[in-house]
Specification:
Layout (H helix, E strand, L loop, with lengths): L10 E7 L8 E6 L2 E4 L8 E7 L2 E7 L1 E6 L7 E7 L5 E3 L7 E11 L2 E7 L1
Parallel strand pairs: 1-3
Antiparallel strand pairs: 1-5, 2-3, 2-4, 4-5, 6-10, 7-8, 7-9, 9-10
């Protein structure tokens, strides 16, 4: 039996999409009711799941998979920030990250991906 956590406590909201926002990217609010790609070291609000016609469906809670740069976090709780390149990284000393539950860390090809409970 394969263990799948998708769908647990999943919550979504629709925002206006800032210019250049792409699916799968951590987001911050860049203006009133507007989601944009999170800058490096930003405490991200969620993840853009879909972007079309000027709107972004943003996942605010639940399990999602995010690309990881730098040293990968271990499973358990970790403080994460956006890496500014469409993924996340472990927060450095002095940075305010989101304390999230990492349920799995996997290598896909040359990339590292974390399964995260937002």
């Amino acid at each position: 039996m394969k263990i799948k956590l998708d769908g647990i406590s999943a919550g979504y909201a629709t925002f206006a999409a800032a210019e250049g926002l792409a699916p799968g990217v951590p987001v911050t609010l860049t203006a009133n009711r507007t989601a944009g790609a999170a800058a490096a070291a930003a405490r991200f609000a969620g993840v853009a799941k879909e972007v079309r016609q000027g709107l972004a469906l943003v996942q605010l809670s639940g399990i999602c998979r995010l690309p990881v740069s730098g040293t990968a976090p271990g499973v358990g709780y970790a403080s994460l920030v956006a890496d500014g390149s469409g993924g996340v990284r472990t927060a450095s000393t002095g940075e305010t990250g989101r304390e999230l539950l990492i349920t799995a860390v996997e290598t896909v090809g040359e990339d590292t991906v974390a399964e995260v409970l937002l």
